[in-house]
Write a structure and sequence with these properties.
Helix content is about 35%, strand content about 25%. The chain has about 300 residues and is of the alpha+beta class. The strands form four sheets. Strands 4-5-10-6-7 form a five-stranded antiparallel sheet. The protein binds flavin-adenine dinucleotide (FAD).
Length: about 300
C-alpha cells in the first residue's frame, strides 16, 4: 500500500455550492478533508490508501459558527427570535478549541466543552473539527457521547437539498455512517441542557494528556428531591459505535437516588455493555469501569 500523500489531487472550493457540485459528479468527487488530523495520520501510516482526489472544506464559511435557535420554528441558524431558543447549531468546521472556549457551549452544553478540552493536544484542538470527529466514526471519538446525550442531529447537504439525521441513527456499524457519496456534513443541531438539569463528561485513558480513550461517557440528568426525572447516558469504546444506553435510562428514570440504587446501577451498566478487548484495554476492564464511571455520575447527583 502506498504511504505517499504527494499524488493526491487537491481541490479548494471557496463556497459550499462549489464543493457540493464537485461531490455531485463522480469525475470530480474527492475525499472530504476538514482539519486533516485523522486523514493525514491514516494516509501517512498506511492505515488508509491516499485517494486520487481530496476536497478541502477549510474555506467554506457556511460550515462555521455557533448559534442559538429554535428548531421547532424551523428558523435559520444565526437569526434568533425573542423568547426561548432551546437549540444550538454548530457548524461542521468548528474546531475543538472553539468548542471548549465558546461561552454558548460552556453554558448550555458543558459536557461537550469538557469533551473537546480532552482531545489530543493544543495543535490537534486547533485543527481538528467536530464533523471530522463524527465522520471518522471511531468508537473512541471523544465528542460523540456528549452529542448523543443532547439528542444531536447531523445536517448533511447535497445538490438536491438537506437531510437531518438523528446522530443515534447516523452510525450504521463499525466505522460506517449514513452519508451518501455526494453529501457533506454542514452542521449539527443540539438541544441545550435544560434549566434544572446537569450534565458532564468523563474520559479514562492510559495517561492524563494526549491519550486515546479506553472508555468515555457523558450524562445529562434532572433530579428533583432525589427522584431521577430524566437521565440520558452515552458511552464510547464499549461497542462498535458510540451508544446511548436506553435500557439503563428507562430503568433509572422514576427511581429515587440512594446508595443501594448506586450499587444496582453500577452492576446494571456493566451487564448492559459488551465491549471488546484491544491494545488499550481488556473487555472485562472496560465493562467494570463503565459501571464505576456511571456510579460516579450518580454520586455527583446524590451529592447535589
Ligand atoms: C496526535 C493525535 C491525537 C488525537 N487525539 C484525539 C483524542 O484525544 N480524541 C479524539 O476523539 N480524537 C483524537 N484524534 C483524532 C482527530 O484529531 C479528531 O477525530 C478530529 O476531530 C478529526 O477532525 P478533522 O477535521 O481533523 O478530520 P479529518 O481528518 O479532516 O477527517 C476525518 C474524517 O471525516 C471526514 N469528514 C471531515 N469533514 C467532513 C464533512 N464536513 N462532511 C463529511 N465528512 C467529513 C473525512 O472525509 C474523514 O473521513 C487525535 C489525532 C491525532 C493525530
Amino acid at each position: 500500500m502506498s504511504t505517499s500523500c504527494e499524488s493526491i489531487e487537491m481541490a479548494f472550493p471557496s463556497t459550499l455550492s462549489e464543493a457540493l457540485a464537485l461531490q455531485a459528479d463522480e469525475r470530480t468527487r474527492g475525499r472530504l478533508i476538514s482539519g486533516g488530523t485523522d486523514l493525514m495520520a491514516q494516509w501517512e501510516s498506511g492505515v488508509l490508501a491516499p485517494p486520487p482526489r481530496a476536497i478541502s472544506l477549510q474555506s467554506l464559511s457556511e460550515l462555521r459558527g455557533i448559534h442559538e435557535f429554535d428548531a421547532s420554528l424551523q428558523m435559520e441558524p444565526g437569526r434568533p427570535r425573542p423568547g426561548s431558543l432551546p437549540s444550538i447549531s454548530i457548524g461542521a468546521l468548528t474546531t475543538h478549541a472553539e468548542l471548549r472556549s465558546s461561552p454558548l457551549i460552556q453554558q448550555h452544553l458543558p459536557a461537550l466543552a469538557a469533551a473537546a478540552a480532552t482531545v489530543g493536544g493544543a495543535q490537534i484542538q486547533a485543527r481538528g473539527t467536530l464533523a471530522g470527529n463524527v465522520a471518522n466514526a471511531s468508537p473512541a471519538g471523544d465528542l460523540i457521547p456528549s452529542l448523543l446525550i443532547a439528542n444531536a442531529s447531523v445536517i448533511v447537504a447535497s445538490m438536491t437539498g438537506e437531510r437531518q439525521i438523528p446522530l443515534a441513527n447516523f452510525y450504521l456499524g463499525y466505522r460506517k455512517i449514513d452519508l451518501h457519496p455526494d453529501e457533506i456534513i454542514v452542521r449539527f443541531v443540539l438541544k441545550k441542557c435544560p434549566e434544572g438539569s446537569r450534565e458532564s463528561f468523563r474520559k479514562l485513558g492510559p495517561r492524563a494528556a494526549q491519550a486515546i480513550s479506553k472508555i468515555m461517557c457523558a450524562y445529562r440528568a434532572r433530579v428533583q428531591d432525589g427522584l431521577v426525572q430524566c437521565f440520558h447516558l452515552a458511552l464510547g469504546s464499549v461497542a462498535p459505535t458510540p451508544i446511548r444506553l436506553y435500557d439503563f435510562e428507562t430503568w433509572i428514570e422514576g427511581q429515587t437516588l440512594s446508595t443501594a440504587l448506586l450499587d444496582e446501577a453500577e452492576r446494571k451498566v456493566a451487564s448492559l455493555v459488551s465491549p471488546v478487548a484491544d491494545i488499550r484495554s481488556t473487555a472485562e476492564y472496560r465493562q467494570w469501569v463503565a459501571g464505576r464511571l456511571v456510579r460516579g455520575f450518580l454520586e455527583e447527583l446524590l451529592g447535589g
